[in-house]
Structures are given as C-alpha cells and as structure tokens.
Amino acid sequence: MQSKLRNKLIIQKYGGSSVANIEKIEGVAERIISYAKQGNRIVVVASAMGDTTDALVCLAKKINPHPSEREMDMLISTGEQISCSLLAMAIHKRGVGAISFTGPQVGIVTDTYHTQAKILKIETDRIKKELANKMVVIVAGFQGVSTALEITTLGRGGSDLSAVALAVSLKADLCEICTDVDGIYTADPRIVKSAKKLKYITFDEMLELASRGAQVMHTRAVEVAKKFNIPLSVRSTFSKKEGTIIMKKMPFIEEAVVRGVTLAGNEAKITVCDLPDKPGIAAGIFNELAKVGVNVDMIVQNVSHKKITDISFTVLKEDISQTLKIARAIAKRVGAGQVIFDENIAKVSVVGVGMKSHSGVAAKTFSVLAKNKINIDMISTSEISISCVVKREAGKRALRALHKEFKLDRIKS
Amino acid sequence: MQSKLRNKLIIQKYGGSSVANIEKIEGVAERIISYAKQGNRIVVVASAMGDTTDALVCLAKKINPHPSEREMDMLISTGEQISCSLLAMAIHKRGVGAISFTGPQVGIVTDTYHTQAKILKIETDRIKKELANKMVVIVAGFQGVSTALEITTLGRGGSDLSAVALAVSLKADLCEICTDVDGIYTADPRIVKSAKKLKYITFDEMLELASRGAQVMHTRAVEVAKKFNIPLSVRSTFSKKEGTIIMKKMPFIEEAVVRGVTLAGNEAKITVCDLPDKPGIAAGIFNELAKVGVNVDMIVQNVSHKKITDISFTVLKEDISQTLKIARAIAKRVGAGQVIFDENIAKVSVVGVGMKSHSGVAAKTFSVLAKNKINIDMISTSEISISCVVKREAGKRALRALHKEFKLDRIKS
Questions:
Q1: Cβ A64–B93 below 8 Å, yes or no?
Q2: All residues at 6 or more sequence positions from B12 whose CB lies less than 8 Å from its CB, including other chains
Q3: Where are chain A's structural domains?
Q4: Which of A52, B99, B172, B261 could lock A48 by a disulfide, CB 3.0 to 4.6 Å apart?
Q5: How far apart are CA A56 and CA A321, in angstroms?
Q6: CATH number assigned to the domain with residue range B2-180, chosen from the 4 options 3.20.20.70, 3.40.1160.10, 1.20.1070.10, 3.40.50.2300
Q7: Secondary structure E strands in A102-161
Q8: Can you name the residues that pair with A312 across neighbouring β-strands?
C-alpha cells in the first residue's frame, strides 16, 4: 500500500509502544519521511512514550489518592507534548521540516469533562497552513482544550480518537493507526497459533471485537470512523507488511459468516440469590449501578418459582467492590438472600456481520462448546455476535475450538 | 515576617530544589497553606522538579545535537506543568482550593525569541478571578506564549523572572523567592565560615553580587524588580528563618560601605601578545566576539612601547575555544604575536553601594591582597564594586582576607 500512496493527505497515529524510546522515535521519524518523500502531506498523532502516562498517574496518586481531574489533565497531557517535540527533532535531524503542536494549541476543542472529554470540533487553519508550508505536522494525541479554555484529555483510546477526528476534519485520504501489532486477527495469535490476519473488516465487526476483548483499537475511535465513514488502516509501525483495513462494507460479494473470535478475562459474575420476583426490583439494582458509572455487560435471570428468582450479571473486575456494596444494600432492603461473586470466569465471543443473514451460528457455537465438554454459564447475543461465559480455565480451549470450527484458520481476507 | 502577613497579595516562587520530590512538594504545600490561612491571597510560581529540565535537554540532544529552539521550548516547558499540577494536588489533599496554569494559559505573553524569550505583558484576568474565588493560583514558571502563539521559555533564571513579572502585573504586596539557601550572605558561607546573612541589600548591590559570582538570584529578575521597585524576599523554603530583603534603598541612614565579597571561577584570561598599537585593532577583536555572542568581562591593555602592546581580557570558560579561534585569526591578519590563555584564574570582588561616597575601598582592597602576598593580575571597577583577577589557588584566601578586612563578619543587617 505504501508504495502506491502519492500526493495524498495521510493521518498517521503512533501509539505509546511505537515511540517508547529514542531508537523507536528515530524509526518512526524515518517511516514518516518515507511517506512524505512521495509527495504526501502528513499529519502525525503521537501518544506519550511507553509507560509515561502510567508513571505520571502513579506520581499523582502518591501525592493525592483522589487527584482533581482537572489537575490530572494538566499533568498527563505533558506526556504527548514530550514525545511530539522529540519526534519533530528527530525529523529535523533528517533534513525534513516538521512542527509539533499540543492539542490546545492546534485547536482540538472538547467539552469540559476532564479525563474523558469528547471532541466537539477541530480548528484546522493552523494545520492547513503548516501543511501548505510542506511541514510534517505533529499533533499531541489524547488531549484538547475545553470550551472553558482548560486542558482536557480524552480518556482511553484517546490518541486513536484524535487521529480519526483529524482525518474527519481535514478530509484525509487515509488514516493509519500504527501500532505494535500488524493488523486485526481472527483471534489473539498468542492464544490461537493458527489465527489469520484479516485484510479487511467492517466497522461493526471491529466494534464487536473491541468491546468483546480485542485490544488493538478502542471502540470510541472506531465509532467516529464509522459515523464519518473514514477507512482506517491498522498496521505495524515496525514492518512494511500490509495491515487490516477497517471499512464500512467488505469489498466482496460473498464473505465469511464469522470473522473473528475473542476471549475476555476482565469481567466477574455477580449473583443476587432469592430475589423477590416483583417488577422493578432488578431494574433498581441496575439503575443504582448505572448512577455510579458501573457498566453491566451480560444479565441472566433464572426462571422464577415460588415468586423468588436468582439474577446474575457481569461487570468489570475493577468495579466488583463497588458493585457488591450496592447489590448487598439492595438485597438487604428488599429481603433477598446472599450476594455472591465469581471472578473465575472468561467470556468467549464469535463475531461476524454475516451472522445477520445466516442462521445456525449460535447453535453451532453451543454445540462446539458442548462437544468439548465446556459448560456455558451465561449467553448474550447481538445481531453480529454471540458471547458465552465459561469457567476461566476453559477459556483458551473454547477459543481454539471455535476458531477451528468456524474455519477461521482458512479465511482468505 | 510570616506572622505579620495578613490579607496581602503575595507571590511565592519555589525553585527546582524546593519541589524536587514528593516529600518536598508536600512541604511546599504546607508552607503555602500557612500563608493562605492568614487571609493572604497567594500566587505561586513553581520551577520544574529537581533536574527535570536538564534530563529533558539531555534526551533532546541524544535525538538531535542541534534541536530547534521552538521544539526545545515545547519539550522543556512540560517540566513546570508537571510540578505545578502535582503541587495543586498536594494542596487539595489538605482541603484548600488551588488551581494550576501553564504560562500560555494564564497569559504570560512574550516575544518570539525561543529559549530566551522576554516577557512583554501578563494578562491578569484569569488569575484575579481565581484569587477572588479564594484559590491558591499556581503558575508554571519559566514559560509563556509568544505573540506568534508559540510556547516559549525565558532562559536562565526564568522562574524568578515569572515571579517578579507577576508581582509587577498584579501589584503584589510582596514577592518571595523561596530557595534552598536562607538568604544573601556577605560571602559564600561554604568558603567563608564567618559569613553573615544580610537582612537587607539594595537592588544594585544584588546585581553586582550576582554578576560577580553569587548564584542565589539571576540578574534578569533583579533588574525587573529594580525597574518596577518590587521588594524581593529571598528565603529558605525549608525553614521559618527570615531571609534577605532586596530593595531600592537601605532602611538606615548609615550603612556599611562594603556589603559582600564574591569569588568567581568561571572565567579564563586570554592574552594577545605583540599587537600593533594602532587605533581600531583592539576594537576589532571585541566587535568580532560580540557578533558571535561572546561576553568579554575585564580588559587590560599594557602600556605601549615601540608601538606594540599586549592586550588581556576575560571571557566565560565555555566561550574559550570560540574566542581563541577569533582572536588567533585576527592576530594573524594584523601581524600580532601569540594568543595565549590561562584558565587558572579566579576573580574576587568587593561590593557595596557605600563605595560611591567612600573613597579608599580600592586602596584597602589592593593593600589587603598585597599584605597576603596575593598578586593582582587584572583590575576592574564600577561605582559600587571592585574586582581583581588573581591566581586560582589564591582565590579562597583572597576572599577570606577581604571578608575579614571589611569587617563583614561583624555586619549588623
């Protein structure tokens, strides 16, 4: 792909692992220049070097276990400023013009929700001016300036989001997400040896994969790319191999029904026992959890008998203690029984837009797991995915079995 | 002094050693709060933590030995942003409101000379608003935003300068320079055991002391304080001891003639031998040096005989190689002799505004050195100071002898 790109406007996002040290920054500088030399105009979005952000967060928590979010944004936004200025210097050394900007400086305007701001608009005048001057423009990812003129950060996946938003605002020809993996795979290659890299994947499939455990891209950036129909190229910073294009529709008439399988181990199951089966009680629990920002993923309610039921649901492990506190308080109030939890679970998911029009994927999923003597604890389905909670120790086995059954090791693109 | 301050507007500047680690930042937070609790409005200017700036410069030089000054400013301005946000968090933990700002954010407007920008004006609206909200306002020192909307830094002594400029703009009642020494001494206490801390010193004396080797404050900040007549209090971050007030005029009718002695070892002597004694030749050398930014300090020209003379001058050691190159080129061109240099020198200075009206200080200085068998190599004088170049090994001895002779160990204030 690289060799065909000439005279285009390209956004390239480099993640923290791509600029983790001086050598890698020099490598990224060379990569950028190889594109610029072919007449392309380049806007680079860089993350903070390696674990810089984590180190800053750690420093802050030592000083104040509950730091103000505004001050957190002041603090952690420095990470990208450092990597971007160093990257500019590395490009200069190679005789190519480059200029770095902070998010606020370049006019990435956000709302006022510190540490998880949303981009409202991007003033592109300054970038366009520098592009016209044949400069490589380097923008600090993950940050912006709020309508109240404060420095904000965009939360998880923020740099991907900065890149996609810039691609939208600048009407870029291509948006590359350069990272430490070389594309989107049918399954995590560390677990499934025969996993295949996909040449194409749809926005919807990518969203499902990301929300079900694939860690390559955060859902927010994919959502924006989908909304504005900006194709994304996910590829390795460190190789010239073609990556995966995330786009609206697959470029073939016929396509594989299932495109990927994922495994997630970051959830725990909570069960409230002997809940009176009256309208509104279950809703009460989930309302309370929503209020404190706990995201409930899967919910299963047993068939009621004697007007008493059990209800199980999954939440992120980091939310367990808060969830237990709330669930136990409600259980006590309504006269329910014990609230128990199980961290020893895994969630396997099967994803593919083809499912919409192909029946039998769910049945096949269940029967594969049954054949492998893997018990299914909970099930949830969407139009293009099926997820099953299984015991943690069966997770990898389940993933490999599903990958094989749906012939993902023989997928073509 | 601290106990008397109530309902004042106070600027406090904390240097890098005052915020070098978490413990010190916590200490600074407590110190600030002790002032705020007495009804004072506080604007804090903080430097980067410890050696952060040096570490960033080192990182940049590894990537590009000649980094662009604009990108250097992008890079190193992050240091103060980090210390300021952490300081705000430490103050919050103690239940007091505080808010940190970058230089650009708070409207410290500078010219466009990156890495050595000059402050043009400060927009004080935002600071005043936050002060009215009873917030401790924390401003990143050493930085601003240029008229071209770029991030700039102010060069050496920049944070002191930010503090003084804020004191001017906000019409502060007091400007404290909080550092790791507890005031201005009659001599460096590490060399002269009997050195006394001065209670007061004039701007002019401070400027002389600073330019002749005293390292407590940079001359730029003192110059601005003098221009706008803002008294400065130089004192320790880590103790409650009163420091030294730098002001326009001493608050007594009679005062000591000599107020301090300094020793500087950062200069070298260059001698151009056998220079034709024609008008314009010496000037030629100094013009060339000025063009490349080399500062010449002391100049001595021998009495001419046979239309040939020797000329000696001192420059900073870091400028030696550049100076030699220029001097040797000119010497060759005009048919002069050898150009030799001596790094083995020291400069002792005697400073005091009283000298203006008291004769005999120079004579006393020379005779003390003679009595101690210390040879004087070069001499320069100003209205309020006398400096002598001596052999390096005699420097400390000369300093102690002068300190004793002028009875600085018995000075009262």
A1: yes
A2: B32, B35, B42, B43, B44, B45, B163, B176, B178
A3: 2-180
A4: A52
A5: 25
A6: 3.40.1160.10
A7: 108-110, 119-122, 136-140, 143-146, 151-153
A8: A271, A300
Please, is B359 exposed, middle or buried when counting C-beta atoms within 10 Å of its C-beta (0-12, 13-18, 19+)? exposed
Point out which residues pair with A177 in neighbouring strands.
A13, A234
B100 touches chain A (CB under 8 A): yes
Say whether B163 sits in a helix, a strand or coil: helix
Mutate to test the interface with B, among A74, A133, A139, A153 (most CBs of B within 10 A): A74
ipTM: 0.84
Minimal C-alpha gap between B18 and chain A (Å): 16
User: From CA A233, how far away is CA A250, in angstroms rounded?
Assistant: 14
| Mean pLDDT per 10-residue segment, chain A (413 residues) | 74 96 97 96 97 94 96 97 98 98 96 95 96 97 96 93 96 94 93 94 92 82 94 94 91 78 93 85 86 87 77 91 93 91 94 83 91 91 90 95 94 80
Low-confidence ranges of chain B (pLDDT < 50): 1-2
Nearest beta carbon to residue B74 from set A62, A81, A90 = A81
Would you state the structure tokens that stand for residue B82, as one six-digit string? Answer: 């980090």
Quote the minimal CA–CA distance from B24 to chain A in Å. 11
What is the pLDDT at residue A1? Answer: 44
Tell me how close the Cα of A344 comes to any Cα of chain B, in angstroms. Answer: 37
**pLDDT of res. B1:** 44
Q: Please indicate whether, in this complex, the C-beta atoms of B93 and A149 are within 8 angstroms of each other.
A: no
pLDDT at A306: 74
pLDDT in tens, A280-306: 887 888 888 988 888 888 888 877 677
CB pairs under 8 A between A and B: 97
CB A129 within 8 A of CB A106: no
Predicted TM-score of the model (pTM): 0.86
